[in-house]
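Fill in residues.
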C-alpha cells in the first residue's frame, strides 16, 4: 500500500501536490478556524474531507472571497464534500482556556462531527493542535494553508460562514451592539456600543477592551 505521507510533505511547493494525497484514496481533512480576534462570540472551526470525483471550483482563502461567493461555495462544499464538520468554543471557554486552546478545542469538535474519520489532518497555521483521537497519517500544520490546500480553503469558508451566521442571529438576542455587521470584531461602532451598554454574555472578558468596559 502506498504511503500517504512522503518525507517531504511539509515542503511540497504547490497546491496540486499538497492535495495529491487525495488521489491515493486516503481521507485527509483540512482544518481552519474563524473568529480568533473578535471581542465577542465563539471561535469556530471547520474540518473538510474533499471528494476528488466531485471537484469544487473557485476555492480560496475565505478572506479573499466576496460574501456572496463564500455563501455559494458554502452550499457547494456541504453538498459535494466527502465529509465536513463544524465545531465551536464559546466566549466562556475562551475566557477559561485562552484563545489558543479554545481554538484547538473547536478544531477537535469539528473533527468529531465528521461522518467518517480522516487518515490525516492538515491544519492551517504553524502549530499542532492536540486532538482527542489519533490519526494514522499524522497532524500536519501548514502556514498559509488556506492558500495552499483546497481542503483547508474549504474549511475556512465553512468556518467563517457558520460563525458570521451565528453572529447575525445573536443580534436578535443582544441588540444594540451591531453584531450582525461587525461580527464581534473591534470596530469603532463596537467600541462605542460596548462603552454605552457594557459587555453582554457573549463578550470575551479576557480580552482587554471588554475587561476595561466591564471594570475588571
Amino acid at each position: 500500500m502506498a504511503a500517504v505521507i512522503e518525507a517531504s510533505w511539509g515542503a511540497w511547493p504547490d497546491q496540486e501536490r499538497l492535495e495529491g494525497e487525495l488521489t491515493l484514496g486516503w481521507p485527509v481533512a483540512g482544518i481552519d478556524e474563524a473568529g480568533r480576534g473578535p471581542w465577542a462570540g465563539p471561535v469556530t472551526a471547520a474540518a473538510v474531507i474533499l471528494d476528488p470525483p466531485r471537484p469544487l471550483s473557485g476555492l480560496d482563502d475565505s478572506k479573499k472571497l466576496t460574501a456572496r461567493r463564500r455563501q455559494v461555495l458554502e452550499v457547494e462544499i456541504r453538498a459535494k464534500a466527502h465529509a465536513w464538520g463544524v465545531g465551536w468554543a464559546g466566549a466562556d471557554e475562551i475566557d477559561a482556556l485562552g484563545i489558543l486552546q479554545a481554538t484547538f478545542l473547536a478544531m477537535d469538535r469539528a473533527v468529531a462531527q465528521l461522518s467518517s474519520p480522516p487518515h490525516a489532518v492538515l491544519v492551517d497555521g504553524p502549530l499542532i493542535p492536540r486532538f482527542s483521537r489519533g490519526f494514522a497519517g499524522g497532524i500536519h500544520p501548514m502556514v498559509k494553508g488556506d492558500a495552499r490546500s483546497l481542503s483547508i480553503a474549504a474549511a475556512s469558508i465553512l468556518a467563517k460562514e457558520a460563525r458570521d451566521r451565528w453572529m447575525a442571529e445573536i443580534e436578535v438576542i443582544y441588540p444594540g451592539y451591531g453584531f450582525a455587521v461587525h461580527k464581534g470584531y473591534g470596530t469603532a461602532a463596537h467600541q462605542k456600543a460596548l462603552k454605552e451598554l457594557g459587555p453582554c454574555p457573549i463578550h470575551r472578558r479576557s480580552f482587554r477592551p471588554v475587561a476595561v468596559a466591564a471594570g475588571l
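The first strand starts at residue 28 and ends at 34.
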